[in-house]
Amino acid sequence: MERIKIMITEDQDLIRTSLQIVLNIEPDMEVVSVAENGERAFNLCDDEIPDIILMDINMPVMNGIEATKRIKEKFPQIKIIILTTFQEMEYVIDALQAGAEGYLLKAIDTKDLTAGIRVVANGGTLITKDVAKVLFAEHIQKEEYGKHDENKINLSKRELQVLKCIANGLTNQQISDKLYLSIGTIKNYVSNLYIKLDVSNRNEAIRKIQQDKLL
Hints:
By secondary structure, the chain is of the alpha/beta class. The protein has helices at 13-25, 38-44, 64-74, 89-97, 110-121, 129-148, 157-167, 172-179, 183-197, 202-212; strands at residues 4-9, 29-35, 52-55, 79-84, 102-105. The protein has two domains: 4-128, Rossmann fold (3-Layer(aba) Sandwich); 151-212, Orthogonal Bundle (Arc Repressor Mutant, subunit A), CATH 1.10.10.10. It is built from ten helices and five strands. The protein has a five-stranded parallel β-sheet with strand order 2-1-3-4-5, sandwiched between helices. Helix 2 packs parallel to helix 3 (64-74) and helix 7 packs across helix 9. It is found in: Cytoplasm. This is Response regulator transcription factor.
């Protein structure tokens, strides 16, 4: 029997170890590598290409959304399942738009986890109806933006709030306090905004906001 080769990308040691034990018990699965952040996962793909990567979202150095985008660009054959505790729709949408084949919550039952991995390994996707509706709505919205103004960037309500804070010169901690969100969540939003704006730091983001009149 040919096993499904899996990489686990997760910054918490306990979760990485637990997943590794659970998945290696399955006769048709093998954890071939583990990574503590997205950058490490990207580099490990050069050594051994897994069939599937279980990808956390909120990680240091490089988050799961950026890692998914980079891995998919270089290794399009690798299938990625976002494994997260975040139930905010925007994270899921960003991950899927970056190329992920689906997402699962970390609290999922072991049987559902392994079943989901097999579905994706066989060419399927793991997307709920609610997420599919949002994806479709965003696709239509992007088409409408394209008709009226090619320079507009499609941002969620929360992303616009964070963008306004950046434009006003607030730090991540100040944004966290203002929006009552964790610092880790704010860092993810800022990273995603950099990707969407095609910038690499705050100064470039502010210039982009001013030049394209995004607010």
